[in-house]
Amino acid sequence: MRRYRLPAFNKIFMVGNLTKDPDLNMTTKGIPVANFRIASSRHFKAANGDKREEVCFVNVTAWMRLAEACKAKLLKGDSIFVEGRLQSKTWKDAKGESKSSIEILAERIQFLSKEIEEDIHEEIVGEDIVNEEEQQ
Known about the structure:
Elements: E1 12-18, E2 23-26, E3 32-45, E4 51-63, H1 64-73, E5 79-92, E6 98-111, E7 119-121, H2 132-135
Parallel strand pairs: 4-6
Antiparallel strand pairs: 1-3, 1-5, 2-3, 3-4, 5-6, 6-7
């Protein structure tokens, strides 16, 4: 059986509404990081004909100038288009149990709310911004 090597590809595009205002923090090295959550809805018709809605909640992390712009411009309920990559995180909770989550590491965010109408783009260059050691 022939084995094929597939290229690595990690890209996500998502539209959603903020579930709360973004939180902006600084790492110990003074790098700004914003965290927020978006809700994205899918409307469909069930097999019995009933209209249904399915909501997906996703955490988003933005760094540097993009983080600062999110904090300055976005509020709960605002619509955004986010482009980035998926990043997984693992940690131990207070009971010592392993936990994990997947979030979007934002590379580009377009603010869709009519009041904002601004496209903010921040390139994340190199892995130094997202390494665990650098974030602390």
